[in-house]
Amino acid sequence: MVTEAKILIAEDENIIAIDISKTLQRLGYKVLGTARTGNDIIKKAEEMKPDLVLMDIILDGKMSGIDAATTIMNRFDIPVIYLTALADDETLQKAKITEPFGYIIKPFDERTLHSSIEMALYKYKINLQLKERTLELESERNKSNELLHNIFPAEIVRELKAEGAIKPREFSSVTLLFTDFQGFTSMVSNMPPQTLLHELNDIFRDFDTILDSYELEKLKTMGDSYMVAGGLPQESEDHAVRIVGAGLEMQKYIEDRNNISKYKWAMRAGAHSGNVVAGVVGLRKFTYDVWGNTVNIANLMERYSLPGKITITNTTYELIKDKFQCEFKERVHVIGNGEMDTYFVVGKK
After folding, report:
1. Edge-to-edge strands, sheet with 6-10
2. DSSP classification of residue 216
3. 230-242: per-residue pLDDT in tens?
4. Three-state SS for 63?
5. Answer CATH for 6-132 from 3.40.50.720, 3.40.50.2300, 3.40.50.300, 3.40.50.1980
6. What confidence tier does 2 reach under pLDDT thresholds 50, 70, 90?
7. Measured between alpha carbons, how far is 265 from 152 in angstroms, rounded to an integer?
8. Arch. (CATH architecture) of 165-348
9. Whole-angstrom distance, CA of residue 247 vs CA of residue 275
10. Domain locations in the chain?
11. Global pTM?
């Protein structure tokens, strides 16, 4: 097969180097040059970027051809064929460790040289394609992992990979926070769609950053509503404290944003603590979600709340009262739960 592959020759005998060069040229290869020492062949390989190096194991100087080949293959990713008269077992074993693309024993004929070079070039091409495909697969795997981590908590991702499914689990004590924007429908009725999307994306993206700093889980967004959980999937004792702290920071963010933004958002928030069942449902577009009475009550606290405020139940109040200043709001009737005291969170103590 005629080829225009570019080849460098490392050979300590000038006469042999000339003979190899002529043979290669007859076979249709382009000889870039020759070198007698390991340092010289490494330098030329770096500068000339050959497709292949024919390497004698015995070279002038202190560096052997095996050492030079190791450097060239590792540093420049250039295939090497050993071309040598040394055929003892010890030399062969040392050469094999470097994983060369061929090993030709002197004296050799043109057919052996030609077939060895073509096989080495083909093997290198296949290896290169495999590396590229491996990198593509690695990139796709990283994208898939990133997507999974954007959808699920890290612990759920690990379970999904290990088990192939997520088992529903009951948590005895978590805190849920709901937020929404009062007057959202009327506010956005005259707002261009792209502007609305930009506003919500900007706000929820910064909410995500706040949650990360408190190690909380965003469960989902529903229109203008934003749902957060503390104490799952990893249980903790301070979930209510972290939820309320994040809620106050979210309200402060909206207040600061309103001072410089054309659009003024009136966010209200509500939280409740209790037990929930958490898991993943569905076959497509599934999400990690929670169910139970706690969800309904937390959502109700958000609806009972006021712009700029966080309304919490007595249950949550008992968990945070040592850390936050609160004021009694009112006693409300919650269907299925009777009368409940509610509080506004004023700030940190």
Report:
1. 30-35, 6-10, 52-55, 80-84, 102-105
2. -
3. 998 888 999 999 9
4. coil
5. 3.40.50.2300
6. very low
7. 28
8. 2-Layer Sandwich (3.30)
9. 20
10. 6-132, 165-348
11. 0.60
